Structures are given as C-alpha cells and as structure tokens.
Prior knowledge:
Blueprint lengths: L1 E6 L2 E8 L2 E8 L2 E6 L2 E5 L7 H9 L10 E4 L4 H4 L9 E4 L2 E3 L4 E3 L7 E3 L2 E5 L8 E6 L5 E6 L4 H6 L9 H14 L2 E4 L3
Parallel strand pairs: 5-6, 6-7, 13-14
Antiparallel strand pairs: 1-4, 2-3, 4-5, 7-8, 8-9, 10-11, 11-12, 12-13
Amino acid sequence: MEIVPLIKGTHVMGEAGETGTNITDHTGSVTFIQNGITNILIDVGGRGRLPEIQSKLAERKVTLDNIDIIILTHFHLDHAFNVAAFPKARVIGWNHEWNEKSTFRFKDIEGREISDGISLLSTPGHTPEHLSVVAKGSNGKRIVIAGDAINNHYIEKKDVSAYAFDKVLYQKSADSLMEISDEFILGHG
Length: 189
C-alpha cells in the first residue's frame, strides 16, 4: 500500500474586516492511497487546488476518472470543494456512501474497512460528522489521516486551539487518535 500526501493543508489568515476574517490560503490536506488496484483520495482540497491535485496524480499516472473512492473527513469546503471533479468515485462521508446509482447509509461506520487495511473512525469534535482514516502502512505502522480531528498544537500541548463545535468531543477524539497512531497526516500544517 502506498500512502502519499499530495497537498499539505494550509490555513493562512488575512486581515479582519467588518464582515469577518479574510482567509487568503485555505485548503485541507489531500492524501492519495493506492491499495493494490484501488485508488483512494482522503479529502479533495479547497478552491483552486484541482490543477495541483491533477498534476500530482498525473505524476503517478492516475487521472481524476481513475479515483475509485473518496473519503471526506468532513464537509468543510477546504476539504471537500473539489468532490464534483470525480464523478466516477464512490464518495464516503459521515455515515453515508454516494455513487452514481445510489446513496447508502451505514448502520455503523466505526472501524468499517473500506479497502484492505484501510478503516474509518468516527472522530467528532471539530464537526459532528468528522471521520478519520486509519491505514496500515507497508512498514506496519498505523497511519492516521486525521483531517481536522487533531492538530500539531494538540499533539504537543494537549490543548484545544482549533475550531471545535464541541471541545470535549474534540479532546476525546484527539486522545483516542493519539493512542492508536504511529504517524499522522494532519488536515492543516
């Protein structure tokens, strides 16, 4: 199994104005997993990132039509903006799967294996529907593609500094990820 971060997540804030804060560069990380013949993307980046995604995939001789599965960690636009560019992919988010023929609601998503060695965890806190992905790397390590369920600040200081709809759930999810992960791919930074 090959696990490749295609785009590193950014979150650059601009000046605050009367109506809010201008975010000048904002995208979640995009991770590509090739698991045998299955091509998987974890999150699909923010506005303006599709050309970069296409270029990075082309380096691996993969096109947008070759993506079999997209897993959205959550539905914020910095992580999910480009989802419509992959019309042939199964899309998994929260506890639903969408494909060109139907929508399927999972009874229980916790620990659900999506492909050999790749499973989902419910990690609410940043958002109610947040998912993280656990993949067993070729070196045997458990790699967690965490979206915004945890960030560097929490890993280093165990302090919730990120936006969270529920800080208690964020902390619980982040702590559980720290217990099982050998490596992280974070949503930003």
